[in-house]
Design brief:
Pfam family, one: tRNA-synt_1c_C
InterPro entries: aa-tRNA-synth_I_CS, Gln-tRNA-synth, Gln/Glu-tRNA_Ligase, Gln_tRNA_ligase_bac, Glu/Gln-tRNA-synth, Glu/Gln-tRNA-synth_Ib_cat-dom, Glu/Gln-tRNA-synth_Ib_codon-bd, Glu_tRNA_lig_a-bdl
Enzyme class: ligase
Catalytic activity: tRNA(Gln) + L-glutamine + ATP = L-glutaminyl-tRNA(Gln) + AMP + diphosphate
Organism: Blautia caecimuris
Distance between the termini: 20 Å
Helix content: 25-40%
Number of helices: 13
Strand order of the largest sheet: 12-25-26-27-23-24-13
Shape: elongated
Number of strands: 27
Amino acid sequence: MENETISKNFIENIIDKDLAEGVYDTVHTRFPPEPNGYLHIGHAKSILLNYGLAQEYNGKFNMRFDDTNPTKEKTEFVESIKEDIHWLGADWEDRLFFASDYFDQMYEAAVKLIKKGKAFVCDLTADEIRQYRGTLTEPGKESPYRNRSVEENLQLFEEMKEGKYADGEKVLRAKIDMASPNMNMRDPVIYRVAHMTHHNTGDKWCIYPMYDFAHPIEDAIEGITHSICTLEFEDHRPLYDWVVKELEYPHPPKQIEFAKLYLTNVVTGKRYIKKLVEEGIVDGWDDPRLVSIAALRRRGFTPESIKMFVDLCGVSKANSSVDYAMLEYCIREDLKLKRPRMMAVLDPIKLVIDNYPEGEIEYLDAPNNMENESLGSRKIPFGKELYIERDDFMIDPPKKYKRLFLGTEVRLMNAYFVTCTGFEADDDGTVRVIHCTYDPATKGGNAPDGRKVKGTIHWVEASQAGQATVRLYENIVDEEKGVYNKEDGSLNLNPNSLTTVTAYVEPELMKAKGYDSFQFVRNGFFCADIHDSKEGQPVFNRIVSLKSSFKLPKA
C-alpha cells in the first residue's frame, strides 16, 4: 500500500482527500474540447487523464463540446474529435453533451446574477474595457455603466437577446472587483452580442456566453466533481469558483490544473496548422507530418503507443517539454512484437545470381517475427534475379563494411550465402547490376561446414516483386532553426519533410489495406495509408525508423 501511495500523482491525492472527507461521494470527469480544429497529441494527455481517473475511481466520464464560439466551430471538427476519442479508447457511453444544449440555463443564470446585483450591461467598447481594466500593478477603473439598476439591466439584457443591438454594442459583465490583483476578476465580460449562425442551435441565439462563464455552469449542470484542465486556467480558477458560488449550485465542481504536454520541435498551434492546410503545404489536418491525433493515426501510431507515451510523461504542476523521440520510442516498443517483419527494398539495385537455374522460382520459409513465434511464418519467392538496397553494395568500401563488395560473401536473409563476382556500371560510374554466385548448400541461411559471414542483407525476388509508393517523413519543421522564425513568427519549414520513393516489395505486402502496419526489415515500421491506398496498390507511410539514440530517462 505504501508504494501505491508514493506513485500517485497530485490529482489522485486531491481526489482521495475529497472522497475521504465526504466532499464528494463519486468521481465524475469530462473532456471539453472546443470544436474549432482537430485534436493534437497534447489533448490526448487530457483525454486519457480524465477518462483514466473516472475508470480508476469507478466513476463517470463525459464528452462535452464547448461550443460557445460560433465564429470558428464546424461540424467537421465535432466528428473528427469524436472519432479521435473513440480511437484512443475513452468511452463516454451515453454522455455526449454540447455546451449549446445549456444556452437556456446559461441565460437564466445570467438573469439570476443581474437580479442579485452581480452583473450589469456595459456599453463600453472592447478597447475601452481593456483600457479601464488597469495593469498588473495598477487597479482598474469602474465602468460608468456599472451602477445601472437591476430593472434597467434586465431590460437591456433581454433586448440584447432579442437582437436589438449590433455586435460589440453591448456586453454583460460580472460585477466583482476592479481592484482585484487577479485581472480575470475585474468585472469580466460574461455575454457578448454575436449575430452568427451556430452549428448546433442555428439562429436561435444572437448572444453567446463567454467561456469563463459557461464552463463552470456546464460542469455544475452535469454533476462534474473534478474539472481537470491545463495550467493556463489556474488564474481563471477564482472566477470559476465565483460563478458556481454565486449561482448557488449545491455540489460545486472543483477545478484542478495540470501541466500541458509540450513536444519539442512540433507544430500544435491551430492557426499554424490551418495555414499549412490552406496553403496546401500539407494535405489536410491529418497529414502524417503533423501531430494531430488523426495524423498520428493515419501515420500508423496506435492508441497503445500514445497511452504509453502519456504514462511516461506523467502528471505534474510544472511545465516541461518532452522530446519527440520518446513518442517514437513508444511506437517501436508497441509494434516490435505485434507486427510481421517483411522485406521491402526502398532504393533498389538489381542483383543477378549467375549460377542459379534460369527461370526457376523456389519458395523459402521466412518467420513473420523472429521475436514472436506466434505470428507464424510465410513463403517467399526466390529466383535468379533479385533487388537489394543500393547501399548494400560498394565498389570501394570502408573498413568494417559488412555488406557486398567484390569477393565478399554475405547472407541473403532466409535464403542463401552469395559471393560478389562483379558488377555492371554506366559511364558515370553508377552501378546498375551486381553479379553473384550462390552456394546451394546454404539454403535457409546457414553453411553446413560452419563458415560464418559478417553481413546479412534483405532482398526481394524481381519477377514477382510488387511496386509500391513509400513515403519517408522527416519533421515538418527545421529542427536546427526551431519551430518559429523569430523575426516574423512564421514556421521554419523543412523542405525535405516528405520524400516519396517507389519500392520493390515482397508480393504479400501488395495485399495491405489502410491502417495495416508492418516492419520493413532494416528500414523501419510502415503503415498503409488509409486515404491513398487502393486494392492491390498500397501506399506506405513510414511511421518511424528502426533505430534511435533515445533512451528512457532513469526514474
